[in-house]
Amino acid sequence: MGMDQYLSGCVALPSTKYDDKTDTHVITPEHQLLRGLCKITHPYPTTSGPLIFFPIMHWHNFDMIHSCFIKINNEEVPDSGSKVYVSAKDLEGLDTDLQLVFSGTCNNQQEEIEFLNDIFETDCYSFTDQQYIDAWDDLKEFSNDVSQLIKHENDEKTHSFSNFYYEADW
Which residues pair with 80 in a beta bridge? Predict the structure, then answer.
């Protein structure tokens, strides 16, 4: 058992586009294709389209990462299975903070741990110096993954997602 955690990228498909000639909303080809593939027969909405979630990252029982996403969302704790919004700007800020620790710009280990406390400590969670030391390699891997995600999202050729969401299941 335990906690499974996911960061997903989200793509919003428009359901309709407005047709000036007929003064009506016409279903978009992408939404029509999705309806056909999923055998959806109920009426389509004219205001917004479906959101498609693509899992990007997965962790198991990594309380530090859970704490970090709680902090990003102003101490909002995601209930089991609920999704909390994470902006690309928040991910960029997280990446910047993590790079300060893992790029070697800190003067000593205590300074690194102070930065990690700023990133991960919340009202719900606090961690000891030893816990940071024990999780160092995993945190560094997390930092590298976030950096790669930001790099791809900032590149027009590989930009994929309109939003991000974090969820944790118990």
Answer: 168
Q: Which of 71, 64, 91, 61 is nearest to 165 (CA)?
A: 91
Nearest to 98 by CA among 77, 58, 68: 68
**Average pLDDT in the chain:** 87
Task: Specify the pLDDT at position 162.
Answer: 75
Mean of the pLDDT values across residues 57-81?
A: 85
Decide: 13 and 31 in contact? Cβ < 8 Å.
yes
Q: For residue 75, is pLDDT > 80?
A: no
Beta bridge partners of 167: 6, 83
Q: Which letter does DSSP use for residue 13 in this model?
A: P
Place of tokens 């027009």: 156
Distance CA 142, CA 59 (A): 10
Q: In whole angstroms, what is the distance from residue 162 CA to residue 11 CA? A: 6
Contact by Cβ (8 Å): 168, 17: no
